[in-house]
């Protein structure tokens, strides 16, 4: 019994250390509830709030998550990963059907509002490229 308790404690200690070492590769999800006015969408959508969900991997590729997650009503998904193997950053956007039709118009005033939220509110201390995010937004 004494040895099994020691083994069990050792196992949990190793598990805890492994978890702490992998914090950078954990998917971080942040959600912002925005008013349509904050995204310059008040003329195009009849909704109280728009959810902006950010999926962020600090030290890994985000592509698998991009293919897995789907947006809900009035939701914008932003995927951001820093692939340390290739030393590149990856950015993707997904929209629900109604927002997708609005953003297909490529209205600069609407596109730049999303970038401003990301650059100044979500990633103000990171080496975040608003230009890369804008290019990803135009591709979507």
Number of strands: 4
What share of the residues does DSSP label as strand, in percent? 15-25%
If helices are DSSP runs of H or I spanning 4 or more residues, what is the number of helices?
5
- Mean model confidence by pLDDT: 82
Order of helices and strands: HEEHEEHHH
Low-confidence regions = 11-21
Q: Give the quaternary arrangement of the chains.
A: single chain
Question: What number of structural domains do the residues give?
Answer: 1
Structural class: alpha+beta
Helicity level = 40-55%
Cα shape: globular
User: What does the main sheet amount to?
Assistant: 4 strands, mixed
Radius of gyration: 19 Å
Order of strands across the biggest sheet? 1-2-3-4
Q: How far is the first residue's CA from the last residue's CA?
A: 59 Å
């Amino acid at each position: 019994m004494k040895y099994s308790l020691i083994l069990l404690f050792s196992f949990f200690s190793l598990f805890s250390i492994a978890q702490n070492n992998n914090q950078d590769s954990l998917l971080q999800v942040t959600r912002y509830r925005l008013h349509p006015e904050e995204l310059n969408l008040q003329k195009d959508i009849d909704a109280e709030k728009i959810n902006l969900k950010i999926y962020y991997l600090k030290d890994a590729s985000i592509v698998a998550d991009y293919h897995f997650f789907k947006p809900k009503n009035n939701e914008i998904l932003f995927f951001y990963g820093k692939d340390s193997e290739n030393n590149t950053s990856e950015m993707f956007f997904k929209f629900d059907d109604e927002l997708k039709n609005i953003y297909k118009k490529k209205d600069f005033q609407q596109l730049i509002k999303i970038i401003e939220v990301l650059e100044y509110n979500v990633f103000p201390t990171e080496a975040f490229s608003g230009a890369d995010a804008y290019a990803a937004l135009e591709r979507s």
